[in-house]
Request: fold
Amino acid sequence: MSLALPPRNLATQVGSIITRTTTSTTRRRMSKTSFSSITDQNPDEPPANWEKVLEGIRKMRSSEDAPVDTMGCEKAGILLPPKRLLQNDLLTADAIDKADEATIKSLIYPVGFYTRKANNLKKIANICLMNYNGDIPRSLKELLLLPGIGPKMAHLVMNVGWNDVQGICVDTHVHRICNRLGWVSRPGTKQKTSTPEETREALQKWLPKEEWVPINPLLVGFGQTVCTPLRPRCGACTVSELCPSAFKETASPSSKSNKSTSRKKPS
Ligand code: SF4
Reply:
């Protein structure tokens, strides 16, 4: 069996590791009683109007103008920093295992946490060589044992690398938006979920399985362009009348949004 890691799978794993209007004051806010069907729902049942909301978000996303539309992990190896790994013949477990960590670090810069990710890539490459004949693990359980791989990445790798959908890939955008829409709550309560993992479990209870893969890029892009972490653009959102959080977070402190996110270049 070849020790070379299939480029598609390694690119997926690398990409997964390193990646990742005016509000009208006259607009009517929905009253609390308007959402009683959402807040009082059985958490195992689909929330009211979820299909309408999903369709509305799909329409808003039809222009595909979000960063995720060109930089999703499926593009790893073509457009993303792994391209530089490919150009340097570093898309096999063997090559990464032998490569200098500083070189990997400089090639994946400027992705977030590039130092830790370069270190994890080395460790993962070694584990793949030792335990999986240079391939990546085939199961969710084994993926979760790799350094730096949590449920979000493990599900993403299973979906994209193995075409084996075992769960929803819930990142910070999916987690935030599902809570704003009132789609998820903590088990046995009506409280919001507090972690992406809780959101994944709550969402999987009712969302049809055929939506488990498309929901991620759909909501990630929606979160990058409209339902943003700070000051969501509810005035431009066509599903605001079905959203229990509409216009409730429009006065976020400006200081947080102005924080610098620049990263120091690797030496
Ligand atoms: S109305 Fe606002 S909070 Fe609700 S989904 Fe739209 S942008 Fe997000």
Summary: The pocket of iron/sulfur cluster is lined by residues 180-181, 226-227, 232-234, 237, 239-240, 243, 245-246 (CB under 6 Å).
